[in-house]
Fold this sequence. Notes:
The protein is mainly alpha-helical. The protein has a domain at 33-104. The protein is built from 6 helices and no strands. The protein has helices at 11-21, 32-36, 42-51, 55-70, 75-91, 93-103. Helix 5 (75-91) packs across helix 6 (93-103). The chain is globular and about 40 Å long. The chain starts with 10 loop residues before the first helix and ends in an 11-residue tail after the last helix.
Amino acid sequence: xxxxxxxxxxxxxxxxxxxxxxxxxxxxxxxxxxxxxxxxxxxxxxxxxxxxxxxxxxxxxxxxxxxxxxxxxxxxxxxxxxxxxxxxxxxxxxxxxxxxxxxxxxxxxxxxxx
Length: 114
């Protein structure tokens, strides 16, 4: 797989999501969307994702959703949210292709490091 064009969080999207979802945190955090995500808030993130159309906001919010999925407390919830996320990633592939590439660790020569 060729590496897609990198995409990054924007300040505007972080500001929009902070206000809309009542988030806290310092914009200067290196991986804001991953550090701010809380697994217990995943339903709130998913509801908001489905209600917005701005692609930059969807990009940042999907990073939060994926992080929240990864840290679900039960295997059942993890599997449940993986299926939801998979469908959203397929639906909005053009927005999230770099995120998919990043999380799939496609840049790793040794897949045991992925």
